[in-house]
Amino acid sequence: MEKNPKIKTKEKILLTAIEQYNKIGVQGITSRHIASEIGISHGNLDYHYKTKEDIILAIYDKMREEMSDYFVARKENISPIEHVHLLLLQLEEFQYRYRFMNLDVLEITRAYPKISALLQKTSEFRKLQMDSLFQEFRKEGYMIPVEPEILEQTQHIIRITITFWLSQREVLGTEKFTEKGSMVRSIWAVIRPYLTETGKKEQGKTIAKYGYIKQESTNEL
């Protein structure tokens, strides 16, 4: 039987860093902690990543590549509403997989200027992608006419919801909306008032098909 190839040290460092950052938080984990967890010397880790910022930058590059694939990839012959729903399912699952990035976003942006600049750049790019998706909604007759300022505010609310969803779960843990799938529900609650009757029917059909939690059948967009 052919054995699975060993994970390279560089990738193992990133996977271990993600696991430890998710479990304890960025501020509570040093490079030495990561090296010890893997069972390598700190010098070996330092050979691959000189600083904690280098590690987080590498993780962020990995995240950005994965998320870009989610935005661009698309199943054939599906409506823009179905595409957006599948994207939201992926986004919520993605948040849990890299939860430290959202939970510690304030500390990360304050401590690491390079990452802060990348986050802002990515946010602007995602804004353009979201606007393109909403344009598809209007083209297909799924969205009512909306004033540009209101549409921009709505998109901003959606980005805030995605960015700080996990943080609100930590702070407001006794409230509703802490179970998985709640982020997707909340975003549709923001969008739904702007849908036409045709759009609402399409959204209802999409929810009935996929639900609010990512399943194996939604792996491919």
From TrEMBL:
<dbReference type="GO" id="GO:0003677">
    <property type="term" value="F:DNA binding"/>
</dbReference>
<dbReference type="Pfam" id="PF13972">
    <property type="entry name" value="TetR"/>
</dbReference>
<keyword id="KW-0238">DNA-binding</keyword>
<protein>
    <submittedName>
        <fullName>TetR family transcriptional regulator</fullName>
    </submittedName>
</protein>
<dbReference type="Pfam" id="PF00440">
    <property type="entry name" value="TetR_N"/>
</dbReference>
<dbReference type="InterPro" id="IPR025722">
    <property type="entry name" value="TetR"/>
</dbReference>
<dbReference type="InterPro" id="IPR009057">
    <property type="entry name" value="Homeodomain-like_sf"/>
</dbReference>
<feature type="domain" description="HTH tetR-type">
    <location>
        <begin position="7"/>
        <end position="67"/>
    </location>
</feature>
<dbReference type="InterPro" id="IPR001647">
    <property type="entry name" value="HTH_TetR"/>
</dbReference>
<feature type="DNA-binding region" description="H-T-H motif">
    <location>
        <begin position="30"/>
        <end position="49"/>
    </location>
</feature>
